[in-house]
Amino acid sequence: MPGNGTYERLISLLDSTATAYELIDHEPEGTTETVSALRGHPVSEAAKCLVLMVKIDRRVTRHVLAVVPGDRRVDLDAIRTLFAARYVGFCDAATAERLARAVPGTVLPFSFDPALELVADPDVVARPCLYFNAARLDRSLAMSGADYARLAEPRVERIAGPRSD
């Protein structure tokens, strides 16, 4: 399973940088709303991670890992504008899994692949406590948004759309 090596890489990164974090074991779940309830926090404190295909022109396609608050949607128009792209859409599961090195529902808000550009909404990095699945369906991680921004080094841009109801 690709997520296991990704999980180990994340924990190694956090431990080697003496970053404070908490592991939370729970029933296997990859849906943001459901796993937030299992972890016992508001959905707005979760990091929703989506792998996008961004077509700049007919020959150039980039892949972006968009990280938005769990109660919001990614604003595809904002991504299109940010990259001056002609098309933005969600990646197929196989491509997302290959680039994120995790199965859907367990994608981290970190990119360990240079072909996957990381963009996070400012509301994500501003969270005192940020929750996300840790490349596993049965384990999550909590850390501060500031520590996340320092370690992951995302491009911080307003990419979250309205609340998803």
TrEMBL record:
Highest rank taxon of the organism: Bacteria
Alphabetized InterPro entries for the sequence: YbaK/aa-tRNA-synt-asso_dom_sf, YbaK/aa-tRNA-synth-assoc-dom
Domain YbaK/aminoacyl-tRNA synthetase-associated: 26-151
GO terms of molecular function: aminoacyl-tRNA deacylase activity
Coiled-coil spans in chain: none
Name by which UniProt lists this protein: YbaK/aminoacyl-tRNA synthetase-associated domain-containing protein
Taxonomic path: Bacteria, Bacillati, Actinomycetota, Actinomycetes, Kitasatosporales
Gene this chain is encoded by: yeaK_1
